[in-house]
Write a structure and sequence with these properties.
Elements (H helix, E strand, L loop, with lengths): L1 H25 L6 H25 L5 H32 L14 H12 L3 H32 L1 H28 L4 H28 L4 H24 L5 H28 L1
Length: 278
């Protein structure tokens, strides 16, 4: 039953986020990217502070060890981000790419936008290389997301549903960036969606592996939850919120705060609904 829930949750988060991103990118909602970023940031922060961290701290694990894990997790994702940006700078300089799996880093908004701007000034072959780098990084990141969702489901069904929703929310802006990069490489709209969907499907593979690993390493579950929350906090504070700082007219600021609140409210509502069924 848990494995089935993990597979449904990971497929929904992995592929659902791509289709939602495609609908937003190519549909009438394309002008609402800023609202999506606010909503994603709210959902990530609420998931971390209201669910993942409390769940971890209710376990037998010591608070000191868990806070140390949180700190190391934040530093780790910061270093991955640095490696990703450094790697892409060199990639464009030398005209080749390594496509290594920069797990959380390649994923997030600014890295994807960084790709988009860089590739605009390069030839088609360079863009195609960048496509594979994006897809390789995407695949590894989605695998990591699957493990995180699995560990949340193993702790609590309700927590798993919330984690899947949070991953879906934060993957949408990221996949919008990916689709933009793939479209620049002269891929058709459909081809771009199929490629990113295939990367998204790897979330389910990560979920299945996570199910096996988390079962074997049950005592480590609180630490998995803390690492998951550190990735969500890092993405919200380092990637999403800085993009929201750019436009600060009173009306836009009010709109951002509103959508941030909507993101948090979504998590709280899904949690309470799942709690009644639990």
């Amino acid at each position: 039953m848990t494995l089935l829930a993990i597979l449904v949750g990971t497929l929904l988060a992995g592929i659902g986020s791509v289709w939602l991103a495609a609908w937003l990118s190519f549909g009438v909602f394309s002008r609402y990217t800023q609202h999506m970023l606010s909503l994603a940031a709210g959902a990530l922060l609420a998931t971390s502070f209201l669910h993942l961290l409390p769940e971890a701290f209710e376990s037998e694990a010591g608070a000191h060890a868990l806070f140390m894990t949180l700190l190391l997790g934040l530093v780790f994702f910061f270093l991955l981000d640095k490696a990703e940006l450094w790697h892409h700078g060199h990639e464009h300089g030398h005209g080749h790419h390594h496509g290594h799996g920069d797990d959380q880093a390649s994923s997030h908004g600014h890295a994807a936008h960084h790709h988009g701007h860089s590739h605009a000034s390069h030839g088609a072959s360079e863009v195609r290389g960048g496509q594979w780098a994006v897809l390789a990084g995407d695949s590894v990141h989605c695998f990591g997301d699957g493990i995180l969702i699995a560990s949340a489901f193993m702790a609590d069904m309700r927590l798993g549903a919330i984690a899947a929703l949070a991953v879906l929310a934060h993957e949408v802006p990221h996949h919008m960036g990916d689709l933009a990069v793939l479209r620049q490489g002269s891929s058709s709209r459909q081809a771009a969606i199929v490629k990113v969907s295939m990367a998204g499907a790897i979330t389910a593979f990560g979920g299945a592996v996570g199910y096996v690993l988390v079962d074997a390493l049950h005592d480590w579950l609180p630490y998995f939850l803390v690492v998951a929350s550190s990735s969500f906090v890092y993405v919200a504070l380092a990637d999403l919120i800085p993009q929201l700082q750019k436009r600060l007219s009173a009306r836009e600021t009010a709109s951002q705060i509103l959508w941030l609140g909507v993101g948090m409210g979504m998590v709280v509502i899904v949690s309470s609904l799942a709690g009644h069924q639990h």
